[in-house]
Amino acid sequence: MVDGLRRLLVVLAGLFALALPSVGAPVQERLQVVATTGMIADAARRVGGDLVEVRGLMGPGVDPHAYRQTRSDILAMTKTDLVLWHGLYLEAQMEEFMEMLAARRKVVAVAEGLPRESLLSHDVYRSRYDPHVWMDPDLWSRVVEAVRNALIAARPEDEAQFRANAERHLAEIAELSAYAKKVLASVPQESRVLVTAHDAFAYFGRAYGFEVLGIQGISTQSEAGLSRVSELVDILVGRRVGAVFVESSVSDRNMRALVEGAAAKGQQVRIGGQLFSDAMGPDGTYEGTYIGMIDHNVTTIARALGGEAPERGMLGRLSAGS
Known about the structure:
CATH topology of the largest domain: Rossmann fold
Number of domains: 2
Strand order of the largest sheet: 2-1-3-4
């Protein structure tokens, strides 16, 4: 496997060399960036502005835990100026490739530099951490700063503009954080139980005082056994939880089983809405940005669990009925 990836990298590097412009050809002005997840791509676009051109590998509904690089992805990453990936074992199937690519291109794992004391442990791998740090806007701000620093290192002459853009975006994230704290505080204490498809919301739970229960573990590659489903059904019934949530990047099959299991025991549980966990909303929409993604999640959770939040979210931009 390693030898095969290495050979492919060498071939693609050779093709790239042949495609380089000849002496005297115009130099491409915008910094070329490839980002793995939509959240990182959004940060790079907001910080880079008109000075960068960003290609995101993983679109809406794509599960980063299971994603494997395609040949077109490999070609894009061998040709670009900068590759940004999350790290913390989020892109588990791409980690080996990224390590090899780093010997040839500028590659930055933007979440790896987070202080270890700010991270939550992984539910399976003792030496690793829960990668879903974007669920806490205050923690995600540090990742945005890492994106800013990576862009500055790649294009030092544009440092002033990158810093100015980053400050504006960080101010927006601070506003989002304040909104989240306000509306989620309105959820009754006894209702602060968030049941989802997999454990992507632990940082959310820590930040806002919610108990988070996922059918699957941190990675969607873990299996949800019948015993886990049965255990959660008993919790739903015993604590009279009224709503559970599906995720845009994970099948809703197990969540439907929870609803049916609770109904069989006399507890009516509804689907409180669809949350964005490992991927953002559709391209070109407000929910397809980091701010919109978290606004949607916070607003949906607060309203479904008895709290008070504007129907169209923090800025009145959420899609109707979202």
